[in-house]
């Protein structure tokens, strides 16, 4: 029997492995099964070059659980090891046999997974003792048994073993006994080993018999050795892709379509990406792409290799050229990663353009589900924007679709303003903004539907890309001012009438949560709406963007919504309100206004007299008089406003016009809505 010390540079190698090498202890099973697959693949390579002349026979990897003894055995019929190889590859930590083998047989090697020579030692994360019983494939080889209890000491002795290959036996420690259960091993094998290139067997298949589950004689193969992405697209049908997707995501809806990746230069990359039907929340959908290295599962956090916007996709990517950290748990930053990311972006764009050109009707039918991917990509990847602008679609309120160029040509004659800017009108809520859409259409304008989660940001982005163009939401102003083409019409109201109407209308606006209303006046046609509500484009857009993105714009989200209560100063009903106001409170208001104007004149004289003087140079009498005037003005203005407010509260027409404007914006609710209904009946 030989005794010795494992060749490490510190006595604390095992605590380091247990604590720091792997982010998850469960990775041990992936590493040991992967090593067994490597050993099998090496033997196949040696057979293909004539260095192994024996019979390959069946060479699956078997995972055997003994729940009573708390042992897990990973067994293969691969190349096996001699005592010298045990000393070289096991006792010298981190001397990778895979690297040496690849260097020697790089032209002929089947996919070899191992890179660092540390995978085997992951077994000590969960085991109090590990044994290796191995026999080399070489003629006349002597089987040996290596044993270690997690200290740097090991034993190596000759034993009998009938067949070539390696058995690794783990004696699971008390802290990790959950791994010594059938359910847990089954779960880990499905997660990490379901697509390994060599059959992996765990127990027997089961079937229901007489109301209970019973084992059959048939081996339970847990993996698919030739998964869909390793096959050529020409031999696959749509149903093959959909079936594979259902296996990956059993609870998901059918995908929109897929992209099959198959690159061999300047790096190796295969995979299948699917465009899923997304729900509303973008973030929830991330971490659905699985990254593999030679068919070994690595991670589903692929932000490093897949562009940000494509993390919304589902599917599989497999590449031996992706640089992994030592434990193969996550990506290392590397120039290759950027190249791969850029290539995936190009492939996705090319595939989308191909579908668009080949089947535009089908592309349009899927657009509402597709647009969030494409908009996200155009917002975050400049190169993707340049490619995607050829097939990105705009949809109008009639359900028709246009490319950017097509739409610009359609609206340029009628929707170019007096400053030669092309105005893109859009709605975010077709039902809620119906009256505004109709008003715009009545003027011959076309209105887009931009009601997606990212559309506030997307509109800003397009404004920065399109020359001499701007986007205007259809309810941000009256139809006549959405696309100004000439000087405004003359408003028939006097300054005093505008002032009185401002008080009249503002006094009767019901309280709407987190909303401010500013009364404004427009000179419209007599047949246009008497009162309407619009929302200023800039502030509204900033608020919407802040709700999605936060960051520097988050303070906009805390501000109340600001609305314009637009009064059509030329409408007969507005003139009727003026006439009724003059009849009921005209004399009182005129008298108060006369007094106010007189006091304002005196205040103006006092203001002029103190120009250029320091405070101490102004006579005290003038200061007292100014204070008295301001006090009287406050009182008089309050009286005037009270008279106008009293008139407004008893005038059903004022409240009716305001409520009609609120109703058309879906802003009339609760008690205010009930009052409106009762008032409508009274007026009828």
From TrEMBL:
Q: Provide the transmembrane region boundaries.
A: none
Pfam families from the UniProt entry: HATPase_c_3, HSP90
**What PROSITE patterns does the database record attribute to this sequence?**
HSP90 (PS00298)
State the signal peptide span.
none
Q: Which residues form a coiled coil?
A: 589-616
The record's listing under SUPFAM superfamilies reads: ATPase domain of HSP90 chaperone/DNA topoisomerase II/histidine kinase (SSF55874), Ribosomal protein S5 domain 2-like (SSF54211)
Keywords of this entry: ATP-binding, Chaperone, Coiled coil, Nucleotide-binding
CDD domains in the record: HATPase_Hsp90-like
**Xref: InterPro entries:** HATPase_C_sf, Heat_shock_protein_90_CS, Hsp90_fam, Hsp90_N, Ribosomal_Su5_D2-typ_SF
Q: Which family does it belong to?
A: Belongs to the heat shock protein 90 family.
Q: Which PANTHER family match?
A: HEAT SHOCK PROTEIN 90 FAMILY MEMBER (PTHR11528)
Kindly provide the name given to this protein in its UniProt entry: Molecular chaperone HtpG
- Give the originating organism: Carboxylicivirga mesophila
Which gene produces this protein? Answer: htpG
């Amino acid at each position: 029997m030989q005794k010795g010390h494992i060749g490490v540079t510190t006595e604390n190698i095992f605590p380091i492995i247990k604590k720091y090498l792997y982010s998850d202890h469960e990775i041990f099973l992936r590493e040991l099964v992967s090593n067994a697959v490597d050993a099998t693949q090496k033997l196949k390579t040696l057979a293909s070059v004539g260095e192994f002349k024996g019979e390959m026979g069946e060479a699956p990897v078997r995972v055997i659980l003994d729940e009573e003894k708390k042992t897990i055995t990973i067994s293969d019929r691969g190349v096996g090891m001699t005592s010298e190889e045990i000393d070289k590859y096991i006792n010298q930590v981190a001397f990778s046999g895979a690297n040496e083998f690849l260097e020697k047989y790089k032209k002929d090697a089947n996919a070899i997974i191992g890179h660092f020579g540390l995978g085997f030692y992951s077994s000590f994360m969960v085991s109090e003792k590990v044994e290796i019983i191995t026999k080399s494939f070489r003629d006349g080889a002597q089987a040996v048994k290596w044993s270690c209890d997690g200290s740097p000491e090991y034993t190596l002795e000759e034993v009998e073993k009938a067949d070539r290959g390696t058995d690794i036996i783990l004696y699971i420690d008390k802290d990790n006994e959950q791994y010594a259960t059938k359910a847990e091993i089954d779960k880990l094998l499905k997660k990490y080993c379901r697509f390994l290139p060599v059959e992996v067997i765990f127990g027997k298949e089961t079937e229901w018999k007489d109301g209970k589950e019973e084992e059959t004689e048939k081996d339970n193969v847990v993996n698919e050795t030739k998964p869909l992405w390793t096959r050529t697209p020409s031999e696959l049908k749509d149903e093959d892709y959909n079936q594979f997707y259902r296996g990956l995501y059993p609870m998901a809806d059918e995908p929109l379509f897929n992209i099959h990746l198959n690159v061999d230069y300047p790096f190796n990359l295969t995979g299948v990406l699917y465009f899923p039907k997304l729900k509303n929340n973008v973030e929830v959908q991330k971490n659905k792409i699985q990254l593999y290295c030679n068919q070994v599962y690595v991670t589903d956090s692929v932000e490093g290799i897949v562009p940000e916007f494509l993390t919304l996709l589902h599917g599989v990517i497999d590449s031996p050229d992706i640089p992994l950290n030592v434990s193969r748990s996550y990506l290392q930053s590397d120039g290759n990663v950027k190249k791969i990311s850029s290539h995936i972006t190009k492939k996705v764009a090319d595939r989308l353009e191909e579908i668009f050109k080949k089947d535009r009707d089908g592309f349009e039918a899927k657009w509402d589900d597709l647009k969030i991917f494409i908009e996200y990509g155009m917002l975050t990847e400049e190169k993707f924007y340049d490619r995607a602008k050829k097939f990105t679609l705009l949809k109008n309120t009639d359900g028709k679709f246009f490319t950017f160029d097509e739409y610009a040509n359609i609206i340029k004659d009628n929707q170019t303003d007096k400053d030669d800017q092309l105005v893109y009108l859009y709605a975010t809520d077709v039902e809620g903004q119906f009256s505004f859409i109709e008003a715009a259409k009545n003027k011959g304008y076309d209105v887009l539907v931009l009601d997606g989660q990212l559309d506030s940001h997307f509109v800003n982005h397009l404004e920065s890309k399109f020359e001499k163009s701007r986007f205007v939401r259809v309810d941000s102003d009256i139809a006549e001012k959405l696309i100004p083409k000439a000087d405004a019409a003359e408003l028939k109201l006097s300054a005093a009438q505008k002032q009185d109407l401002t008080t009249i209308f503002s006094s009767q606006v019901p309280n709407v949560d987190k909303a401010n209303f500013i009364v404004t006046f427009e000179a419209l046609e007599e047949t246009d709406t008497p009162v309407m509500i619009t929302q200023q484009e800039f502030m509204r857009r900033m608020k919407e963007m802040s709700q999605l993105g936060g960051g520097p714009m988050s303070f906009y989200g805390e501000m109340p919504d600001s609305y314009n209560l637009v009064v059509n100063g030329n409408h007969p009903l507005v003139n009727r309100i003026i006439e009724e106001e003059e009849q009921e409170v005209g004399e009182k208001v005129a008298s108060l206004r006369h007094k106010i104007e007189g006091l304002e004149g005196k205040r103006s004289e006092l203001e002029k007299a103190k120009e250029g003087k320091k405070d101490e140079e102004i006579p005290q009498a003038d200061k007292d008089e100014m204070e008295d005037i301001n006090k009287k003005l406050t009182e008089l203005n309050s009286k005037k406003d009270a008279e106008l407010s009293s008139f407004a509260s008893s005038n059903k027409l004022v409240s009716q016009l305001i409520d009609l404007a609120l109703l058309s914006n879906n802003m009339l609710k609760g008690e205010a809505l009930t009052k409106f209904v009762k008032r409508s009946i009274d007026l009828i």
